[in-house]
Amino acid sequence: MEGSINGSLNLIGYGLSAIGGGIGVGLVFAAYINGVARQPEAQRVLQPIAFLGLALTEALAILGLVFAFVLK
Where in or outside the cell is it found (predicted)? Predict the structure, then answer.
């Protein structure tokens, strides 16, 4: 067929999940920095929560990568 496009939309889905992960990590650390700037003594409490948020957000991006290759 002339003018047809061959390919897979899985990689586009992974790209979208990577963008979502980047935005999520940015929001997590923006909230962490904002919280520490307002109350520096709360850093010890907020830091593990920020790293947990980082891990969960990146896990979703990694799942997007896995699904992009599994469903290809």
Answer: Cell membrane; Membrane
| Ramachandran region, residue 5 (left: φ > 0; alpha: ψ -120 to 50; beta: rest) | beta
Q: Retrieve residue 29's tokens.
A: 């650390």
Query: According to the model, what pLDDT value does residue 29 have?
Result: 95
The reported pTM is 0.73
Contact (CB, 8 A) for 20 and 61? yes
Tokens for 34, please give them. Answer: 């904002």
Cβ neighbours for 59, distance < 8 A, ≥ 6 positions apart = none
Domains of the chain and CATH, by start: 10-70 (1.20.20.10)
